[in-house]
């Protein structure tokens, strides 16, 4: 076929199929566009023009040369690494990008943003801006525990050591406050060799303790020029401030965030590390609750899972289990008494099956749990509102309801809270691999001079995302999409909307 006979859409597809082309925006998008469904006769010329005219909004990724323009660059030592044989396409360039949105309505029936957000693809670059022989890297873990934290630490150490030849790697003990209150510990591959098999964090962690000037002063005084920060959304907000202060002082220091939250509530990226391990472990709690409930007369198995502001663990565990009769998450409201309420529904399930399993995320129902004025004002060390135990409250309310309405009938509630069991275990195989890819992505980015970014998968491809975007984004369960409808079809629970 002569190129002159190709449609504009076909030309775009052809360019996307060429790995060396600067127009290679997304192979996934190219595959979607070139599929038979996308190229059938119903696609109009207007649809093609609409797609081609839509610009890609490539998000600005901070680089140390933005404020240190005369910084010396070096050839990536991977060129001479005995484990690698870089060939064409091995090193990524500025034209390697990833689209945030890969599903596009070509008909124009549904409104969407004028431009498609795009991010730089994660991976090694030909030029680096840190001399491995003088690089001093610091690694810190902040906030609560999560499966895979030790794996990330281990892979950061091994990656820096083996890939780039960095020999000065330090662990900051006890979270953010450790920068200025504790001596860092020197790390090497031999020391961290078995860390991925351990739960928790070998560097220890804490909440709070964020003092911006003390932290940046300590980073500067200790000669750290790379800082890897592992933590959740609150930690990432702190990392933004650290990066901004480093940039204000014009320090040659790269800052990378590795998002950690077992709740999977970090926005933009596909998922947080540890999430799949948490869902897998939640199954054991649900299975135990099901056995207990099924073995009792009018038995209810009540399981509280993690999820302060989002219900992803509860949702995925419910879909995976299929033994759950009701799933309550923070994104949806519910009520106990009256027509269409939780008690009415559970009574129906007990009459039908003789037992029921109820899964609740820790952040669900917080607005209907009675609180004292002091409890309303209470905050934890990170400044977050202190949540009351929705599981214990529900257990008490269920017992009160049954003793009031069915005083002569047997009834049992078995309450299981596996929170600390889930948080403290090592990552499973899938999350361990994910942690390795996150760590190596962060190393490649910082060595290439990028800073103030978070690494993570977007539509299955690893990208560099500005820290500020991730710190401000939230990954909530969309209760209007197919997945939540699937949950309700599995459980047959009502929508708990008062008529």
UniProtKB/TrEMBL annotation:
Enzyme class: transferase
Regulation: Allosterically activated by AMP.
Alphabetized UniProt keyword annotations: Allosteric enzyme, ATP-binding, Cytoplasm, Glycolysis, Kinase, Magnesium, Metal-binding, Nucleotide-binding, Transferase
Principal place of residence: cytoplasm
Cellular compartment(s): Cytoplasm
Site feature (Important for substrate specificity) residues: 234
Cofactor: Mg(2+)
Molecular function, one GO term: ATP binding
Residues reported in the UniProt entry to bind ATP: 144, 207-208, 232-235
Gene Ontology CC annotations of this record: cytoplasm
Location of the Phosphofructokinase domain: 136-444
Any single biological process term in GO: fructose 6-phosphate metabolic process
Catalyses which reaction(s): beta-D-fructose 6-phosphate + ATP = beta-D-fructose 1,6-bisphosphate + ADP + H(+)
EC number: 2.7.1.11
Binding site for substrate: 261-263, 306-308, 362, 420-423
One Pfam family in the UniProt entry: PFK
Pathway linked to the protein: Carbohydrate degradation; glycolysis; D-glyceraldehyde 3-phosphate and glycerone phosphate from D-glucose: step 3/4
Sequence positions that bind Mg(2+): 233
UniProt xrefs under PANTHER family: ATP-DEPENDENT 6-PHOSPHOFRUCTOKINASE 1
Family classification: Belongs to the phosphofructokinase type A (PFKA) family. PPi-dependent PFK group II subfamily. Atypical ATP-dependent clade 'X' sub-subfamily.
Biological role stated in the UniProt entry: Catalyzes the phosphorylation of D-fructose 6-phosphate to fructose 1,6-bisphosphate by ATP, the first committing step of glycolysis.
Protein name: ATP-dependent 6-phosphofructokinase
Organism: Manihot esculenta (Cassava)
